[in-house]
Amino acid sequence: MKNIISKVILGSFVVGAVGMANAQKIDAKAKKILDDITANYNSKKNSYFKFSFGSGLNGQVTKTEPGIYYAAGEKYKLKIMDTEQIFDGSKIYNINADDMEVTIAKPNGSGTMFSPINYLTTYRNDYNVTYNGKKMVNGVNADFIKLTPVKANGIQFVYLFVDSAKKQMVKLEQHGNNKDVAVIAIKEYKENQQLDPNMFVFDKNKFKNYVITEL
User: Fold this and answer.
1) Residue 10 lies in a domain
2) Of 148, 158, 201, 203, which residue has the fewest beta carbons closer than 10 angstroms?
3) Does the reported pTM lie above 0.90?
4) Structural domain includes residue 66
5) Would you write out the chain's pLDDT as a tens digit for each of its 215 residues?
6) Signal peptide location in the record (predicted)?
7) Do β-strands 211-214 and 101-105 pair in parallel, antiparallel, or remain unpaired?
8) Cβ of 186: how many Cβ atoms within 10 Å?
9) Residue 103 CB-density burial (10 A; 0-12 exposed, 13-18 middle, 19+ buried)
10) Would residue 38 count as lying in a domain?
Protein backbone atom coordinates (compact mmCIF):
# COMPACT_ATOMS: atom_id res chain seq x y z
CA MET A 1 0.00 0.00 0.00
CA LYS A 2 2.76 2.42 0.94
CA ASN A 3 4.63 1.77 -2.33
CA ILE A 4 1.53 2.49 -4.43
CA ILE A 5 0.81 5.69 -2.53
CA SER A 6 4.39 6.81 -3.05
CA LYS A 7 4.08 6.25 -6.79
CA VAL A 8 0.80 8.11 -6.96
CA ILE A 9 1.30 11.07 -4.66
CA LEU A 10 4.91 11.89 -5.51
CA GLY A 11 4.32 12.75 -9.13
CA SER A 12 3.44 9.22 -10.12
CA PHE A 13 3.38 8.40 -13.79
CA VAL A 14 5.48 10.43 -16.22
CA VAL A 15 3.54 12.33 -18.84
CA GLY A 16 5.50 13.50 -21.86
CA ALA A 17 4.62 16.57 -23.89
CA VAL A 18 2.09 15.59 -26.53
CA GLY A 19 1.02 17.67 -29.50
CA MET A 20 -1.92 17.51 -31.85
CA ALA A 21 0.34 15.76 -34.37
CA ASN A 22 -0.52 12.54 -32.51
CA ALA A 23 -4.12 12.78 -33.78
CA GLN A 24 -5.68 13.29 -30.38
CA LYS A 25 -9.40 12.51 -30.30
CA ILE A 26 -11.76 14.16 -27.81
CA ASP A 27 -15.48 13.34 -27.81
CA ALA A 28 -17.52 16.56 -27.88
CA LYS A 29 -19.99 15.45 -25.20
CA ALA A 30 -17.25 14.33 -22.83
CA LYS A 31 -15.34 17.57 -23.42
CA LYS A 32 -18.37 19.70 -22.51
CA ILE A 33 -18.94 17.73 -19.30
CA LEU A 34 -15.29 18.05 -18.23
CA ASP A 35 -15.11 21.73 -19.18
CA ASP A 36 -18.31 22.48 -17.24
CA ILE A 37 -16.88 20.79 -14.13
CA THR A 38 -13.59 22.63 -14.52
CA ALA A 39 -15.37 25.97 -14.83
CA ASN A 40 -17.44 25.16 -11.74
CA TYR A 41 -14.36 24.38 -9.63
CA ASN A 42 -12.47 27.39 -10.97
CA SER A 43 -15.34 29.69 -10.02
CA LYS A 44 -14.95 28.80 -6.33
CA LYS A 45 -12.63 30.54 -3.91
CA ASN A 46 -11.51 27.12 -2.67
CA SER A 47 -12.61 23.50 -2.68
CA TYR A 48 -12.34 20.63 -0.20
CA PHE A 49 -12.71 16.90 -0.82
CA LYS A 50 -12.84 14.09 1.69
CA PHE A 51 -12.29 10.83 -0.15
CA SER A 52 -11.31 7.20 0.10
CA PHE A 53 -8.13 6.12 -1.67
CA GLY A 54 -8.15 2.56 -2.90
CA SER A 55 -5.30 0.57 -4.41
CA GLY A 56 -4.69 -2.89 -5.74
CA LEU A 57 -3.66 -5.01 -8.71
CA ASN A 58 -5.35 -6.35 -11.84
CA GLY A 59 -8.17 -3.84 -11.60
CA GLN A 60 -9.20 -5.00 -8.13
CA VAL A 61 -8.98 -2.68 -5.12
CA THR A 62 -7.68 -4.60 -2.13
CA LYS A 63 -7.15 -1.81 0.41
CA THR A 64 -8.61 1.64 1.06
CA GLU A 65 -7.48 4.56 3.19
CA PRO A 66 -9.03 7.98 3.88
CA GLY A 67 -7.67 11.12 2.26
CA ILE A 68 -8.29 14.86 2.14
CA TYR A 69 -7.65 17.44 -0.57
CA TYR A 70 -7.77 21.24 -0.38
CA ALA A 71 -7.38 23.50 -3.41
CA ALA A 72 -7.45 27.26 -3.92
CA GLY A 73 -6.54 28.43 -7.38
CA GLU A 74 -3.41 26.56 -8.42
CA LYS A 75 -2.38 25.85 -4.82
CA TYR A 76 -3.31 22.57 -3.16
CA LYS A 77 -2.73 20.22 -0.26
CA LEU A 78 -3.24 16.48 -0.58
CA LYS A 79 -2.91 13.99 2.29
CA ILE A 80 -3.22 10.21 2.19
CA MET A 81 -2.19 8.23 5.26
CA ASP A 82 1.25 9.48 6.36
CA THR A 83 2.08 11.07 3.01
CA GLU A 84 1.31 14.69 2.23
CA GLN A 85 1.89 16.88 -0.80
CA ILE A 86 1.69 20.68 -0.82
CA PHE A 87 1.97 22.99 -3.80
CA ASP A 88 2.36 26.61 -2.75
CA GLY A 89 2.17 27.99 -6.26
CA SER A 90 5.91 27.77 -6.75
CA LYS A 91 7.27 24.51 -5.33
CA ILE A 92 5.95 21.04 -4.58
CA TYR A 93 6.65 19.64 -1.11
CA ASN A 94 6.37 15.87 -0.67
CA ILE A 95 6.26 15.00 3.03
CA ASN A 96 6.58 11.41 4.20
CA ALA A 97 5.98 11.19 7.95
CA ASP A 98 6.72 7.47 8.08
CA ASP A 99 10.23 7.87 6.63
CA MET A 100 10.67 11.39 8.05
CA GLU A 101 11.63 12.76 4.66
CA VAL A 102 10.71 15.89 2.70
CA THR A 103 11.43 16.34 -1.00
CA ILE A 104 11.11 19.81 -2.52
CA ALA A 105 10.95 20.36 -6.26
CA LYS A 106 9.84 22.82 -8.88
CA PRO A 107 6.95 21.62 -11.04
CA ASN A 108 8.30 20.76 -14.47
CA GLY A 109 5.21 19.74 -16.37
CA SER A 110 6.45 16.17 -16.71
CA GLY A 111 4.38 14.64 -13.94
CA THR A 112 0.70 14.43 -13.15
CA MET A 113 -0.49 14.35 -9.57
CA PHE A 114 -3.23 11.85 -8.82
CA SER A 115 -5.83 14.13 -7.25
CA PRO A 116 -9.62 14.50 -7.41
CA ILE A 117 -9.36 17.06 -10.23
CA ASN A 118 -5.96 16.84 -11.94
CA TYR A 119 -7.29 15.17 -15.07
CA LEU A 120 -9.71 18.03 -15.70
CA THR A 121 -6.78 19.96 -17.14
CA THR A 122 -4.30 17.31 -18.31
CA TYR A 123 -6.84 15.62 -20.58
CA ARG A 124 -6.68 18.54 -23.01
CA ASN A 125 -3.25 17.60 -24.35
CA ASP A 126 -2.39 14.14 -23.12
CA TYR A 127 -5.42 11.89 -23.64
CA ASN A 128 -7.97 10.62 -26.10
CA VAL A 129 -11.36 11.12 -24.50
CA THR A 130 -14.53 9.07 -25.03
CA TYR A 131 -18.01 9.26 -23.52
CA ASN A 132 -19.16 5.82 -22.32
CA GLY A 133 -22.72 6.56 -21.17
CA LYS A 134 -24.18 6.43 -17.67
CA LYS A 135 -23.23 4.25 -14.71
CA MET A 136 -24.47 4.12 -11.11
CA VAL A 137 -21.57 5.07 -8.82
CA ASN A 138 -22.02 5.63 -5.09
CA GLY A 139 -25.74 6.22 -5.57
CA VAL A 140 -25.22 8.73 -8.40
CA ASN A 141 -26.27 8.12 -12.00
CA ALA A 142 -22.90 9.37 -13.22
CA ASP A 143 -21.55 10.15 -16.66
CA PHE A 144 -18.73 7.73 -17.48
CA ILE A 145 -15.73 9.16 -19.35
CA LYS A 146 -12.65 7.21 -20.41
CA LEU A 147 -9.21 8.75 -20.96
CA THR A 148 -6.58 6.87 -22.96
CA PRO A 149 -3.04 8.27 -23.27
CA VAL A 150 -2.11 9.67 -26.67
CA LYS A 151 1.49 8.74 -25.96
CA ALA A 152 2.92 6.04 -23.65
CA ASN A 153 3.08 7.42 -20.09
CA GLY A 154 2.75 4.37 -17.84
CA ILE A 155 -1.03 4.63 -17.70
CA GLN A 156 -3.29 2.20 -19.53
CA PHE A 157 -6.46 4.25 -19.06
CA VAL A 158 -8.31 6.51 -16.63
CA TYR A 159 -12.02 6.35 -15.79
CA LEU A 160 -13.81 9.50 -14.65
CA PHE A 161 -17.30 9.36 -13.15
CA VAL A 162 -19.00 12.73 -12.81
CA ASP A 163 -22.27 14.17 -11.55
CA SER A 164 -23.12 16.48 -14.45
CA ALA A 165 -26.13 17.99 -12.67
CA LYS A 166 -23.95 19.21 -9.79
CA LYS A 167 -20.87 19.59 -12.03
CA GLN A 168 -18.78 17.59 -9.58
CA MET A 169 -16.43 14.62 -9.70
CA VAL A 170 -17.75 11.42 -8.09
CA LYS A 171 -15.00 8.89 -8.69
CA LEU A 172 -11.65 8.57 -10.45
CA GLU A 173 -9.87 5.35 -11.42
CA GLN A 174 -6.31 5.19 -12.73
CA HIS A 175 -5.15 1.90 -14.25
CA GLY A 176 -1.42 1.47 -14.90
CA ASN A 177 0.33 -0.63 -17.51
CA ASN A 178 1.90 -2.57 -14.64
CA LYS A 179 -1.62 -3.63 -13.55
CA ASP A 180 -1.65 -1.26 -10.55
CA VAL A 181 -4.98 0.43 -9.92
CA ALA A 182 -5.57 3.56 -7.83
CA VAL A 183 -9.05 4.86 -7.05
CA ILE A 184 -10.36 8.06 -5.49
CA ALA A 185 -14.01 7.99 -4.44
CA ILE A 186 -15.22 11.35 -3.17
CA LYS A 187 -17.22 11.13 0.05
CA GLU A 188 -17.68 14.78 0.92
CA TYR A 189 -17.32 18.06 -0.95
CA LYS A 190 -17.24 21.61 0.42
CA GLU A 191 -16.47 24.94 -1.19
CA ASN A 192 -15.69 28.56 -0.32
CA GLN A 193 -14.60 27.77 3.24
CA GLN A 194 -12.63 30.06 5.55
CA LEU A 195 -9.23 28.40 5.30
CA ASP A 196 -6.18 28.86 7.49
CA PRO A 197 -3.95 31.49 5.79
CA ASN A 198 -1.05 29.05 6.12
CA MET A 199 -2.93 26.11 4.59
CA PHE A 200 -0.59 25.96 1.58
CA VAL A 201 2.59 27.10 3.31
CA PHE A 202 5.44 24.70 4.06
CA ASP A 203 6.98 25.54 7.43
CA LYS A 204 10.47 24.06 7.56
CA ASN A 205 10.61 24.61 11.34
CA LYS A 206 8.00 21.88 11.81
CA PHE A 207 10.29 19.31 10.20
CA LYS A 208 13.62 19.85 11.95
CA ASN A 209 14.14 16.13 12.45
CA TYR A 210 13.34 15.27 8.85
CA VAL A 211 15.77 14.69 5.99
CA ILE A 212 14.97 17.53 3.57
CA THR A 213 16.12 17.26 -0.03
CA GLU A 214 15.64 20.06 -2.56
CA LEU A 215 15.94 18.94 -6.15
Assistant:
1) no
2) 203
3) no
4) yes
5) 444 444 454 443 333 333 344 568 889 999 999 999 989 998 999 999 999 988 888 878 888 899 999 999 888 999 988 889 999 989 989 999 999 999 998 876 544 456 677 778 777 778 899 999 999 998 999 999 999 988 887 889 999 999 999 999 999 998 988 888 989 999 999 999 999 999 999 999 999 999 999 98
6) 1-23
7) parallel
8) 22
9) middle
10) yes
Number of domains in the chain: 1
Instruction: Supply the DSSP symbol for 110.
Output: S
Task: Tell whether 14 is covered by a domain.
Answer: no
Q: What is the CATH number of the domain that holds 96?
A: 2.50.20.10
Residue range of the domain that includes 119: 28-214
Q: Is 205 helix (H, G, I), strand (E, B) or coil?
A: helix
Sign, CA torsion 93/94/96/102? negative
